[in-house]
Design goal:
Length: 137
């Protein structure tokens, strides 16, 4: 089974959290150095707001990004404590999101979508999905 590297997975999952915490850190540095100036207060407000937006995006997106291993017969969704395996007929749809270099997968009988990374930069799963979407009825 082919699976994306753990580095790529953790980078994609925690990118917005790290960016949000960085914004808060920069805002707190500006506040400590010159928090009494009106321009500094405005900059601090902007950095804290951006940090809040990025942390909110992390909370929304992080639970949907999963580690997925793909073979010609099965798809395995890997969680920290268990692995769920699905046969290809159980997959309702799968599509490639080229801007984010991710796949979006919908499983029959399960709410929500799963987002996962390909094994290499621009590799498409076994040449099956070039662009667009595969839908099984």
């Amino acid at each position: 089974m082919k699976e994306a590297s753990r580095v790529k997975y953790y980078f994609a999952k925690y990118f917005f959290l790290a960016l949000g915490l960085l914004q808060w850190f920069i805002g707190s540095i500006i506040f400590m150095r010159s928090g009494h100036l009106p321009k500094s207060q405005f900059a601090v407000l902007i950095f804290f707001t951006l940090g809040l937006v990025f942390v909110s995006l992390f909370l929304i997106i992080a639970s949907k990004i999963k580690r997925v291993a793909v073979s010609k017969k099965k798809v395995a969704v890997i969680n920290s404590h268990k692995t769920q395996e699905y046969e290809w007929p159980e997959i309702k749809s799968i599509s490639f999101l080229p801007f984010f270099n991710m796949y979006r997968m919908k499983i029959r009988g399960r709410k929500g979508k799963i987002y996962f990374l390909p094994t290499q930069e621009s590799e498409v799963i076994y040449g099956i999905f070039s662009s667009g979407q595969l839908t099984k009825n």
